[in-house]
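Data availability (excerpt). The following record was deposited with the supplementary files.
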Amino acid sequence: MRVLVTGAAGFIGSHVSGHLLARGDTVLGIDSLNDYYDVTLKHARLAELTKDDGGFSFKKVDFSDHVALDAALDAEQFDRIVHLGAQAGVRYSINNPRAYLQANLAGHLNMIEIGRNRRIEHLVYASSSSVYGGNETLPFRVEDRVDHPLSLYAATKKADELMSETYAHLYRLPQTGLRFFTVYGPWGRPDMAMWLFTKAILGGQPIDVFGEGRMRRDFTYIDDIVAGVVACLDNPPSDDGLVKAGGSTSPHRIYNIGNSRSEDIGEMISAIEHSCGRVATRRLLPMQPGDVRDTFADIEAIQSDLGFEPRTAIAEGVSHFVKWYRKYHNV
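Predicted structure:
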């Protein structure tokens, strides 16, 4: 099977690509390599994917530019799509809203248009737990109303789900949307709390802990995420008129994909301290605009449909991340 992976130089995209290559699939990766964070890290991820000459090809293209995208893919063949590329970050969306309009709305439309025109077997795309906004009933269920996003990032992800539902209804394009919950692990993003805390602790600097240190997150290790993404990719939703996860009767389903545990931020910091062998100086700060207090995934739907079972505890996952971070930065 040949799979098109968008955001292939990104955190999740590079891991998914690596897993597909390891099992014998071929992967066409695309990425704009924008400078939202250090492009050197993105190139390093790509180098990992190409070092064994194992069926990975890459094209630098901005999938939000439909003319450039069509030109880049014109001579390419692929069976399925994993659409993971996006403009990420809740806080960044406060000051840079147009980046989200372009990448997450125009970009998603372009990818489902590719899926429709190519009659793709299955398109798996990244949504986000951010769509739950200020919901106070935990754990978050895919059946919950998600009409009150707290950030533009969350609003764009909800809009992506709606566009996908429309294309599943009109064109019977099989799709699976995945609401990711706080993904972490080796090769992660520098704007994420785990990276920022590890960098500060190893550098002897204080860490900024928002929400007065009283926030909880459903931290999900990257290997568990990849297992769920690939399980979805291999099992397209049926066009049988039955109600799918998320409520659609079209070939479109939505899953939460998380660890199904809500961890106190302080516990995550303690795990980093233990792995670094140093104690952090914590600066407790108020909640940031767009942030939510707690996240907690109900994963019953993906468990029962696909047998998804996250296996990595936070202490184990943090240990793997810190070990990788120290090796990558030689610290």
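Summary of structural features: DSSP finds eleven helices and 13 strands in the chain.
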